Amino acid sequence: MSEPVNASDYLELAAANVDPAVWCYFEGGAGDEVTLRANTGAYGRWRFRPRMLVDVSEITTATTVLGTPVSMPLLVAPFAMHGLLAADGELATARAASALGTLFCVSTITTRTHAEIAAAGGAGRGGSSCTS
Ligand SMILES: Cc1cc2nc3c(=O)[nH]c(=O)nc-3n(C[C@H](O)[C@H](O)[C@H](O)COP(=O)(O)O)c2cc1C
Predict the structure, then answer these.
(1) CB atoms within 10 A of CB 118
(2) Which of 45, 65, 89, 126 fits 82 for a cystine, CB–CB 3.0-4.6 Å?
(3) Is residue 26 lining ligand 1, measured as CB closer than 6 Å?
(4) Residue 131 Cβ < 6 Å to ligand 1
(5) What is the pLDDT of residues 80-125, one digit of tens each?
(6) Residue 62 · residue 89 · CB < 8 Å
């Protein structure tokens, strides 16, 4: 794969780079994966409407989530045990979310303390964390 361009590409890259025993845990959804299928189906129904000759010099993906400004309508959902995926665990996720100006919803089941995660995320460019 040259350059990942969509969620499926990233899924493929993750599957190729994560220990299969660990990947078994992360690749699934909860229960019978009803919500996972519903979410995938919902995103599949979105369509981009092509518009020609429109002024795009001042566009933004920035919005707010529960009053908190974010750079884009994309957040990191809470999921457990990031340390199984990377040495820095949730610290790396917090740094990434913060650098991109979005929110990282921290699981209660983490491989770093919440204080460490909060410190790693810092104020960033508007990114911060919530707990689930
Ligand atoms: C591997 C895995 C671990 C998860 N761990 C947590 C968790 O620790 N805390 C939590 O609140 N949700 C956890 N979730 C649920 C996700 O945050 C999310 O709610 C779920 O994937 C469905 O996404 P949705 O919010 O778009 O419906 C986990 C999901 C997965 C797939």
Answers:
(1) 15
(2) 89
(3) yes
(4) no
(5) 999 999 999 999 999 999 999 999 999 999 999 999 999 998 764 4
(6) no
